Amino acid sequence: MANFMPRGATTKSKREVKDTRKPSYKIYILDTSTSMLGTIPVLDGGDEIKTVRKIDELNRGVELSLKSLKEFEEKNVLYKIFYQIIELNSYGKALFSEFVPVASANDKIAFQADGVTCLENSLNTCLTYLDPKYMPGNKRTIDIFLFSDGCPTDVDGYRKIRSEYLKTLELFDHELQVRGLAPYVTKHAIFIGDDESGEETLRSFADEGNFYLVKDTESIADKLVFATIKSQKRQSSRKLTACDKEEGDILDSTVEVRQIDITKCLGESCGLCAKSCPVGAISQSGGIVSIAPDLCVGCGICSEDCPADAVYLMELLGM
Fold this sequence. Notes:
The chain is α/β, with parallel strands linked by helices and about 325 residues long. The chain contains seven helices and twelve strands. Helix 1 packs parallel to helix 5 (about 220-235). The model is unreliable at about 240-255 and about 315-319 (pLDDT under 50).
């Protein structure tokens, strides 16, 4: 039997799919000072406790966190995730020269513990990347994760009084306000150890509900992954809101998706749109073809392939 070809259908080649996902930026500021060479007890699976180096736990946590970001990006087609890692030490170096797409993070990251925890250097490096040069076109979703196992110091390794640490954090928050970034930034902090000054500094940095204390026998890696996953759940459930005229290039209040006019659709006898959809957003049930708005990225390939011109563009407000 000959294969059925709907009237008007063509075998034209597919055009390249434009990535219409909105960017989401993650910045990890991680303590990689010499204190991270110390060991901690960690509960291994059941009731067995093992001793591990903190830096090894941190490296494992980064690896698992990036893996969770990749998995999220694969399932949620509204966001494309970029990340940067900054060392919280006297050098305050960034791991990459720019934000890196999480989908291309293939190399295993292994930090070596050296230097001292200089908060000013690392936050200033962070501010360098919170700039349109590195984040073109979007400022809506930025997560900053600050991790430390002790009290920050100056570049020479000396402690400061608490008021000076708070001043550093205030200057950082002020800069976010000046740049118009404050509404789009969520700050997380993870602390391990029993240094009260260090703990209070990180508590002051984190937004309400986003401070995590690694307790005795708990895994550093698990806490870092938990904070990462929580940030993604918050992002995926957060609704877009209308913006004023001046912020029109920063925040969209609508999402463009495709819908099907069932009065024109050829139904299951065709199915070209479902076959051509690159994200699997189109399904057929009971002879009715439909497009899932939470999966559709608005690329338009189905519109081009539809022989009956049954697919049209629709804007979903406040999605």
